[in-house]
UniProtKB/TrEMBL annotation:
<keyword id="KW-0732">Signal</keyword>
<protein>
    <submittedName>
        <fullName>Sialate O-acetylesterase</fullName>
    </submittedName>
</protein>
<feature type="domain" description="Sialate O-acetylesterase">
    <location>
        <begin position="106"/>
        <end position="347"/>
    </location>
</feature>
<dbReference type="Pfam" id="PF03629">
    <property type="entry name" value="SASA"/>
</dbReference>
<dbReference type="InterPro" id="IPR036514">
    <property type="entry name" value="SGNH_hydro_sf"/>
</dbReference>
<dbReference type="InterPro" id="IPR005181">
    <property type="entry name" value="SASA"/>
</dbReference>
<feature type="signal peptide">
    <location>
        <begin position="1"/>
        <end position="21"/>
    </location>
</feature>
<dbReference type="InterPro" id="IPR013783">
    <property type="entry name" value="Ig-like_fold"/>
</dbReference>
<keyword id="KW-0378">Hydrolase</keyword>
<dbReference type="InterPro" id="IPR039329">
    <property type="entry name" value="SIAE"/>
</dbReference>
């Protein structure tokens, strides 16, 4: 009798084992994910070699298939419907079904950078996020999905990331990027569709960490290590985060990117002016979806012990990057920094200004202003400079406060504090008693400032100078 029972158990186990699906999917393809809506997306994974993998989506009667290669890899493309769900995806290579449940179709954004993007809603130790508990308390939202990619430095491109999709809850939001979460929440409420946000960021990292070896070869001054075993902070080495936290996601369809990085490159702003556009172009090429929107945040002002002005130079380089990077936009936040803290508390302002770019520029919602005013030109009238701007359809304002951050220089190049007056036409008249014949003007040209001038939609004027910073 005992032998019969053991035999039955064996055959039951054998039956279950042989019907278990052998299809293996990457972490980004899982329950609770959001697929980019109304487009053609890639699905991929592994199976036994030379197997036909079939995929069926609950929104369609069509059956999709792909044959795995000699190493077991397979990839296919599938059309997604308009926003909605929940859906189910079923995978079968002849060994049994693997089903993904609670899949939504909607809008997907990938958010990357260093610590200010990584900073979770709960804050860092003794470094809070403004109004975090209130924001967390309203985080129950089944139409907002969150995925945080785990740190995993590698000198070779990897096939998969560490991470899992989660439905937005207070518990999930608490551990998620404060900027990315609030951006996603803003989009979901405005667009009224499911939104998926992927965060792939690591604090203290230079842009070189997020760039591919192929691109960095064109920058011979960047040294790529041959080994990581002797490196104490291996995650700070060139290419290692691109290989493990960006490259494995390049098959996953997205709507666009958010980027908040630059603190670790602030001492080499001129080099950044070349690295940044090169990185964006490389990412776009690898996703192969054209010039997907790329929205980024300028560095928040921060007091510096150095007199080199590295912070403001980096902010200016970031401003100029909008001209070098097609379909890009910078969220100006020179009014949202903290003098002595690189991790400024106010992440809501940052998220909203990134959200304005997405809602106004990408999704075309009329009435939403997303461009900060920027310097256009200036002309001399006696001992004054008349400075003109772009992107201020309803005028400029200082909200009734004195404007103190303008400076003027003559032919000698020496700048002096100036008085500035707003005109009804939207120009600003600037003069300084020390400068009889002004030639050049600059605004907020310090590492630490609190922005004073806005367009009437509340978007601040970024730091600028009319002389070369080289």
């Amino acid at each position: 009798m005992k032998i019969k029972i053991l035999t039955a158990v064996f055959f039951l186990f054998f039956s279950v084992a042989t019907t278990k699906a052998k299809v293996v999917l990457p972490a980004v393809l899982s329950d609770n994910m959001v697929l980019q809506q109304n487009t053609e997306v890639k699905l991929w994974g592994t199976a036994d070699k030379n197997k036909i993998v079939e995929v069926v989506a609950s929104w369609s009667t069509e059956k999709y298939s792909s044959k795995s290669d000699a190493s077991g890899k397979w990839l296919l493309k599938i059309k997604t419907p308009v926003a909605g769900g929940p859906h189910t995806l079923t995978f079968n290579d002849g060994s049994g079904n693997l089903a993904l449940d609670n899949v939504m179709t909607g809008e997907v954004w990938l958010c990357s950078g260093q610590s200010n993007m990584e900073m979770p809603m709960k804050g860092f130790p003794s470094q809070p996020v403004l109004n975090s508990n209130e924001i967390i308390s309203r985080a129950n939202n089944p139409n907002l999905r969150l995925m945080k990619v785990g740190r995993n430095p590698s000198l070779a491109p990897l096939e998969d990331v560490k991470g899992v999709w989660k439905i937005s809850t207070p518990e999930a939001a608490r551990e998620f990027s404060a900027i990315a979460y609030q951006f996603g929440e803003m989009l979901q409420k405005q667009l009224k569709v499911p939104v998926g946000i992927i965060v792939s960021s690591v604090g203290g990292t230079k842009i070189e960490c997020w760039m591919s070896k192929e691109i960095l070869k064109t920058f011979p001054e960047v040294k790529i290590p041959e080994r990581l075993d002797a490196v104490k902070q291996d995650f700070k080495e060139p290419t290692v985060l691109f290989n493990s936290m960006i490259y494995p996601l390049t098959n996953f369809a997205i709507k666009g990117w958010l980027w908040y990085q630059g603190e670790s490159n602030r001492s080499k702003a001129n080099a950044y002016s070349k690295l940044f556009p090169a990185m964006v172009a490389d990412w776009r090429k690898r996703w192969d979806k054209g010039e997907l929107p790329f929205y980024y945040t300028e560095l928040a002002p921060l007091e510096s012990k150095s007199s080199t002005g590295n912070g403001v130079k980096m902010r200016y380089v970031q401003l100029q990057a909008m001209e070098a990077i097609p379909n890009s936009g910078m969220a100006v936040i020179n009014d949202a920094g903290m003098k002595d803290y690189v991790h400024a508390m106010d992440k809501t302002t940052v998220a909203r200004r990134l959200g304005y770019w997405a809602l106004g520029n990408t999704y075309g919602i009329k009435g939403i202003s997303y461009r900060s005013p920027i310097y256009k030109s200036h002309k001399t009238e006696g001992n004054k400079l008349i400075v003109s701007f772009e992107h201020f359809s309803n005028g400029m304002t200082s909200y009734g406060k004195e404007i103190t951050l303008f400076e003027l220089a003559g032919n000698d190049g020496n700048f002096y504090p100036a008085t500035a007056t707003l005109t009804k036409s939207g120009n600003i008249e600037v003069q300084a008693k020390e400068v009889e014949k002004p030639v050049s003007v600059r605004y907020a040209w310090k590492d630490w400032v609190v922005g004073e001038v806005y367009n009437t939609d509340g978007l601040p004027l970024p730091s600028f100078t009319t002389i070369s910073i080289e």
